[in-house]
Amino acid sequence: MKFDEILGTQTLILDGAMGTMVQNLALDDSAFGGPAFKMLTDLLIFSRPDDLEGIHLKYLQAGANLIETNTFGASPLRLAEFDFKDIDLTDIKAIPPELNLKESDYSAITWHLNVEGCRIARRAIDKYKASPDYDGRPLFVAGSIGPSNYVLSKTEADLKKAIWSQIVDNNKQQVLGLIEGGADVLLFETQQDILELKASLIGAQRAFEQTGKKVPIIAQVTVDNFSKMQIFNTDIHSAYVAVQGMGISAFGINCNTGPELMQKTVEKLSRLCHHPISIIPNAGQPVSEDGKTCYKLQPEEMADYVERFVKEFGVAIIGGCCGTTPDHIRALSNRLKGVVPERTLPANQVYVSGPQEAVALDSSQGLIRIGERLNVRGSKKVREGVERDDGIQMTTLEEVVEEQVKDLGIDIIDVCMDSNIVETEVVLPETIYALTSDFKGVMCLDSFSVEALESAIKTYPGRPIINSISLEEYKDGVSKLDAVLSQTAEHCPLYIALVNGPEGPGQTADEKYELAAEIVKQAGEKFNVTPDQIIIDVNAYPIGSESVEGLNFCAETLECLPRIKAIHPDLKTSIGVGNLTNGLSAKPYMRKVLTSVFLDEGRKAGLACAILNPHHYVPLESLPENDVAL
């Protein structure tokens, strides 16, 4: 049976640490090609394939279902840390004949390491299946993919920085080798930057497209005992939301801590994660003895913790990371072989996420507010901070963000850098990158330019909202919907969809409904974008600006809301309410009353979200009754 068919029907056991077992081999430097290469244990694929096969076999004999390839660092960016011209080949005897290790480029070395790494693991499985000890359980080769040692997200830490395309290509190259070698599943593990993981997953998709073969993916991040990815302070829920729609089969954590410090994270994932959960702890917390790092948690002690993870929280994949041995895996297998992981899946709820936290798009208790102030065209302060000859004044933009998020409690902010003075395609991603270094909310990426949106989403460490798509022509007979979704749908964001068509914006309730229905239809049929990813913006026009006698823009908008909501129960609606009272900028109190009353009526009719200036909206109960009635 295939991995996805088995997943969730029984507890699957991943093997234990490769590094620990390699250390136990006590190999000379020559096995790695010299002391400069001793940290690159992936090279044992070429120098000690039989020893690696023996390690895999020991884990199979201990009860593992999944055997990890020895390819954690076998990607071009990781390999580029080493100068292979200096490698000593004296004790490296299993180099493929077509590979010149001293002179080949890193892509070629990547290819062969991953191909051969899979083949070694497969030989171990075949040998075990042929032995009298084999019990008939499903066995799989898991292609191990570690982080690149570069980061994409903004940080002040002294870390190597990469760009999006580098990470995509880096992982595409590694996955091509793993596919050729016959990996049954890909294991992205020890991931520390959620933006890097997103790029890595898209790199895998590129490899799938090139080969015509698709392999299941397990995505694992590393968190501390507070459920945070440490470098960027990304909460585990935010990390999951960022990648849940990007083609993964399972999600979880590995490394950094022992099982004793993972319980909070396991419980949280059990409540919030719709995918099967993977938990791979170290053998306790590391301690130093005689200058060596040691892990002291004994096999049965580890099994006590992990058994609870499976039986109480429904964890589907377990195994061991640093410090674990075949004895640890045997203890897990003895406790959990044949146990079916069971848990109640969380209720359907749509989340978006930022670099640190996830936010539920839940309008059941109140309107979802999207702050509109970080907009070049809508804020004089922002415009003066952006349209400058000496570059963007980020401190000004940070003040606008802080006012909305920290002072006014806005969870989602709209970011629009459209300008005739600066190049939006450069400024929007630059702004996103700079402002997400310490940002607790979620961003709505807003631009008329498809190129700006495409670049911006590649700098955003989370699951954003994109503003906007529509059926109006973008260029050369291509709609804005087609243009935006073709470049961004693989990221699985949410979209604000304007009820605009080839003839312009919908004005009547009928026109708005028909455009909304067509948007939902085309997005699903062409790009597999589901209704729960779409927020229909029903358009707001200034009060009193109707050009057709008898037409009431407010009434038409309110009338269309329940009809649009009925297109699909997962569909949400929104309005950019600032346009409604554009003519009242000199009368701020009247503007606040009109905005607040309209949004209250809209919410009763099915409105879920509003893009607004937080200063222009208050709950009706805080306004005088006479003003509301008027």
Give the helix proportion (percent range): 25-40%
Low-confidence stretches are none
How many DSSP helices?
Answer: 21
- Count of DSSP E strands? 26
Q: Strand pairing plus helix content: what structural class?
A: alpha/beta
Q: What's the Cα radius of gyration?
A: 27 Å
Taking all residues together, what is the mean pLDDT? Answer: 94
The coarse overall form would be elongated
Q: The biggest beta sheet, please?
A: 8 strands, parallel
Query: What is the chains' assembly state?
Result: single chain
N→C terminal distance: 68 Å
**What is the strand arrangement across the widest sheet?**
1-12-9-8-5-4-3-2
How large a portion of the residues is in β-strands, by DSSP E? 15-25%
Task: Characterize the structure shown.
With 630 residues, the protein is of the alpha/beta class. It is built from 21 helices and 26 strands. Strands 1-12-9-8-5-4-3-2 form an 8-stranded parallel β-sheet. Strand 19 and strand 20 (478-479) form a beta hairpin. The longest helix is centred in the first third of the chain and has 24 residues, at 106-129. It is elongated. The model has no long low-confidence stretch (mean pLDDT 94).
